[in-house]
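Fill in residues.
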């Protein structure tokens, strides 16, 4: 089944305790698309870059089956740039630079042939742009998932709440869930957030895994204990890409299948953090992903 990914395609500069990069390719949309492409064979993207964005990455996405008709290349303009520095715990980071560039006036144009797409993954972008995409789709996708961040809660809370009414799945981290709900308990936070619109809520807890909430049901997926985390940038987006890629590939948005999708997302994210930027996602194989999924199965499996 088809999946439409919307998100930033960007340049990043990253500093972690292990090293520092110059401008490398990043962006939530890039991570989502790369991760989803291992699963969903019919993926489309709506995004914008400047004429400084390297053709090699676009070619790679195309080779992975991502349709790029919805990717706008703005001549004479610069690609979105983000720079961040991680603290020693590798869980928290400071944003050093955000240059919106082409994202500042991003008009998410949906190519005619994208109409009727089965699934939609809205990466972290302004809630206005996220809502515009939903409203421009003439047929509502079977499942709409979105990511967001504390930045939008700080500056565009009302817009964010309007967009939340339109989506099925919200994917955020624990800190963001607490900020959005004003509840410390994640169980209480989930209740408050689900009343805002999304029937399903996924709360990511970094190295402590992820929780899926739906009605009274809660599912917990661990994160794989890794010896080394090199660069956590994009792990959340990679998780979301793996999750929605799996849902689209299996064409099954039931709670039971979402459990498998979360494990798939967690497996994809565990690769992402092993090297800087998108590097690891461009070199892994389907076999390695399957092996890692089995490691998750072994990790959480027990008889009682
Ligand atoms: P994550 O580590 O999952 O939070 O995602 C990091 C990615 O999000 C980086 O590759 C950035 O390019 C991208 N990013 C950071 N800030 C923003 C923003 N305000 N809007 C869109 N994308 C962003």
């Amino acid at each position: 089944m088809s999946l439409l990914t919307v998100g930033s395609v960007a340049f990043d500069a990253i500093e972690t305790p292990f090293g520092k990069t110059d401008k490398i390719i990043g962006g939530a949309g890039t991570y989502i698309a790369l991760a989803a492409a291992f699963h969903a064979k019919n993926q489309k993207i709506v995004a914008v870059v400047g004429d400084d964005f390297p053709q090699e990455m676009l070619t790679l996405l195309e080779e992975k089956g991502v349709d790029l008709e919805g990717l706008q290349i703005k001549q004479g303009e610069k690609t979105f740039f983000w720079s961040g520095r991680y603290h020693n715990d590798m869980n928290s980071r400071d944003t050093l630079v955000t240059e919106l560039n082409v994202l500042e006036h991003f008009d998410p144009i949906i190519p005619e042939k994208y109409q009727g797409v089965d699934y939609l993954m809205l990466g972290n972008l302004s809630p206005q742009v996220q809502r515009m995409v939903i409203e421009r789709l003439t047929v509502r996708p079977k499942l709409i998932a979105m990511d967001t961040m504390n930045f939008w809660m700080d500056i565009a809370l009302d817009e964010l709440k309007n967009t939340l009414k339109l989506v099925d799945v919200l994917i955020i981290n624990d800190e963001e869930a607490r900020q959005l709900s004003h509840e410390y308990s994640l169980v209480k936070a989930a209740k408050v957030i689900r009343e805002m619109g999304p029937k399903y809520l996924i709360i990511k807890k970094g190295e402590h895994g992820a929780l899926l909430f739906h009605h009274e049901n809660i599912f917990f997926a661990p994160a794989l204990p890794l010896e080394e985390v090199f660069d956590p940038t994009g792990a959340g987006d990679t998780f979301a890409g793996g999750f929605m890629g799996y849902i689209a590939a299996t064409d099954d948005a039931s709670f039971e299948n979402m459990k498998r999708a979360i494990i798939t997302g967690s497996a994809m994210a565990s690769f992402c953090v092993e090297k800087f930027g998108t590097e690891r996602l461009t070199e892994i194989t389907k076999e390695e992903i399957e092996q890692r999924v089995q490691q998750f199965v072994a990790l959480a499996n027990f008889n009682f």
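Residues 238 and 283 are 14 Å apart (CA to CA).
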